[in-house]
Design a protein that fits this description.
Radius of gyration of chain B: 25 Å
CATH topology of the largest domain in chain A: Alpha-Beta Plaits
Oligomer: heterodimer
CATH topology of the largest domain in chain B: Rossmann fold
CATH class of the largest domain in chain B: Alpha Beta
Number of helices of chain B: 23
Structural class of chain B: alpha/beta
Shape of chain A: elongated
Strand content of chain B: 5-15%
Number of domains of chain A: 2
Largest sheet of chain B: 6 strands, parallel
Largest interface: A-B, 20 and 18 residues
CATH architecture of the largest domain in chain B: 3-Layer(aba) Sandwich
Largest sheet of chain A: 5 strands, antiparallel
Shape of chain B: globular
CATH class of the largest domain in chain A: Alpha Beta
Order of helices and strands of chain A: EHEEHEEHEEHEE
Radius of gyration of chain A: 18 Å
Number of domains of chain B: 3
Helix content of chain B: 40-55%
CATH architecture of the largest domain in chain A: 2-Layer Sandwich
Strand content of chain A: 35-45%
Helix content of chain A: 25-40%
Structural class of chain A: alpha+beta
Amino acid sequence: MRKRAILAFMLDRPGVLNKVSLLIRKKMYNVDTLTVCRSRIPGVSRMTITLEEKDEAKVTQVIKQLEKFTEVISAKELDTDHSYWREVAIVKLEVDVAHLDAFHGRYNFEILEQKSEDIHLLQVSGSTRNIDAFLDELGQEHIIEIARTGVTAMEK
Amino acid sequence: MTGKQLLLKALKDRGVRHIFGYTGGAIMPIFDEMEKLDIFKFVMSRHEQGAAFMAQGMSRASLSTDAPQIGVCMSTSGPGAMNLVTGVADAHMDSVPMMAITGQVATGVIATDAFQESDVVGVMMPISKQTYMPLSAEEIEKTIHEGFYVATTGRGGPILVDIPKDVQNQQVGEDYQFDVKTYRPQLPGYFYTPTPEREPIQRAIELINKSERPVIFCGHGVINSNAGELLQELAEKVNIPVAFTLHGLSAMPADHPLSLGMMGMHGTVEANRVIMEADLLISFGMRFDDRVTGKLSEYAQNADVIHVEIDPSEIDKNVKTSVAINADVYRTLHVLLGDPMLTYQPRRRWWDKIAVFRKVMADDLEMEIEKGLGDDNKLLMKSIIHQLSKLTEGRDLIVPDVGQHQMMAARFYNYQTKNSWFASGGAGTMGCSLPMAIGVKLARPEERVWSISGDGGFQMNAQELGTIMEQKIDLKIIILNNGHLGMVRQWQTFFFDGRYAGTPMQSPDFGLLAKAYGIPHRRVEKLQDVAPALQEAIDHCGAIVLEFICDPSEVILPMVPSGGGFDTMIIKHPRTEAAKNEGEAA
């Protein structure tokens, strides 16, 4: 299986997200991540969908069928070699500050709030793999709660 | 002006003259306004599904006339709208432009599970080309015009407009303005490319010129873009045989010397064998559906594929193309025909081969048709269709239902009139024939229309006899009654050891049923009575039901088993095979 990112620009109208998710379901995918935001053009949204598929032709089909929607202006695949995939995570964890010091410089994170001596709220950003590595190295047992945005991507 | 008035104005501006439907609480304001206006001919179906198929019949049949009319069906909210679903899904599968207008509960109570509330937009979204829910009267006219534009451009499809009851009654503001003449839909995400590009055309011509064993495919796109004559001209110019998809039938005369007939699961031997051996497929307006290709990995393995198709998402979907022409079929044919590089080639070896393929089943079929009788001396459907074809000289409009009789009608009627075959293909909806034929007849009142159903499909929408009675529709209705769901029975014969699970069926006395609606009925059991009965229907002014008692063991052959390659094509009834083997053993 290969992780794919599909970038689509579409009109910011009710029901468009519904159409996109219907198509992905119909094609029997489970969405890995899905992010939607405004684009530079008023009234146009930017959507990044990641899913797993090894067959190139099938991804092309999804993209063509996305483009078929009246509201979708354009859609394309972004591959990891030619684009940046990034996400943000907010993590609540129970850990010594000293333990965190070891990660400075190696990961892109900041402490949003220290809630008590051991409880911290962190924000960490980077590639999915980078965030996963950070959390693993930190120790999953320290994590109380985590919120991740899912991937947003841009061509290089 | 109110929302309902603007709706009807927009429909009138778009050339709509017929509205098919069924009233109910949430659509009452529009019906009331329609009654006051007296512009439209309202045809009340007896079930909303019927209205959807009538609208389809209108769109399909009128597209080749001087006054194309998009079929419009209307229903109330909730159950009314849900009953349209099958007809809309069917139109979506077969790329038929139509508009379904549904009443919805008032905006104030939407999403509260109000009486007769359903999420119609949510249900229709995956089976429509576009769905709308105007939330103010100001949006209505624009929505209808945009809907018609989307329905009829590019690859056609059904549009749903769900209008809350309060929006129907709402007054537009005093400063409301809408100019039909200057209106252009603002759809930055909606593209279609009617004109072919030069480069793929040139590559296509090179492939055509160098091909030794080419075949042209005629799909629904040829009918939809009114390009039958051009396709015929092209085929004649380059001397290449033409095979038809189910929906491509009647684009050019069925008995044209270049015609191979229908391809696919129940296609002719010659069409399927030609595809197996071809070195080039030149396909116009089709989507390589599984009923057309059989097993994809074994499909036309030695052939290059030129695919002319208006919907880019169909290109490379099932069959990998060598040259993709994402354009309108009519325009592409026009460009191809105007190109002096395209040459005629005799391809004698290819035609000799085709002549051999044509003979494989010809004698058997001819004998069967000639005999006209199967087990227990019951009638054969193919023979009835053949006689109908002879009596009408292949000129009439044929609206089959779905199943075995549909394949018989596809194969054994000699289509001479362009756009004269109206079938449910992609969705394969049983029960479509009777209501669709009503739409077809209203679209082309000067032509004779035959609705041909099996006993199963007929009973799925038999209530539309009421519409036929009320509207005095001159429809020739044929029921090929074999007491079974014939096509499923055929599969059971071939692949389920002859266990007929859920296929035998008891029917009512169709004579009494027809009589209840004041429609004459003839029951035909004897071969010698077939032609006189058909002739009586032709001579009779008004609707008539002809019921033919058919042999349930009749099969439509050849048959490519589902998921099989063309080399697995069955050309003999297993029973005949068994008898032959026994004979040899003895």
